[in-house]
Write a structure and sequence with these properties.
By secondary structure, the protein is an alpha/beta fold. The chain has one domain: Protein-Tyrosine Phosphatase, Chain A. The chain has five helices and eight strands, in the order E-H-E-H-E-H-E-E-H-E-H-E-E. The longest helix is centred in the middle third of the chain and has 17 residues. The chain is globular.
Length: 148
């Protein structure tokens, strides 16, 4: 099973959509705790679901269970805060369930995978759920995430 990830960063809407289509994405799961941006207005939860729908892509917000403040990362070490473990693992199970039916892409604002909580989520998806995880960069290229 494959799960994709991406950060929209400063990408224009058109390029973001093209990157999703290039990788066959059928569902975006928004993992931002606050699903809006002062800089990228099109990424607001009030606009993004309709934009994606027009391109045949489903939208789901899961920032409550997979948002950045639920994780910690220091250098190569990463993990979950003890009090958030159950919430996060239930969220990850929902992601995996979606990925059985759809080609899923977890979306966040951060363009740098290594500095984003997506990298921590990828670690859990690979090690605990046995999924293949790919990060889509700003050019649309999908790089397989490795734990080494």
């Amino acid at each position: 099973m494959k799960i994709f990830m991406t950060g929209y960063s400063n990408l224009p809407e058109k390029e973001f959509i093209e990157n999703l289509k290039q990788n066959g994405i059928t569902m975006v799961i928004d993992i931002r705790e606050r699903p809006y941006s002062r800089f990228q207005k099109w990424t607001s939860i009030k606009k993004l679901p309709d934009i994606l729908y027009k391109h045949g892509i489903k939208y789901r917000w899961m920032g409550g269970s997979l948002g950045g403040s639920l994780f910690w990362k220091e250098g190569d070490e990463c993990g979950l805060f003890k009090e958030t473990e159950q919430k996060v693992f239930l969220g990850l199970e929902k992601v995996v369930d979606c990925a059985r039916e759809e080609t899923v892409c977890l979306m966040c604002a951060c363009g740098d995978f290594d500095r984003c909580h997506r990298s921590v989520i990828a670690t859990f998806l690979i090690s605990d759920f046995g999924t293949d995880v790919y990060d889509i960069d700003k050019t649309g290229a999908a790089q397989k995430v490795s734990l080494t």
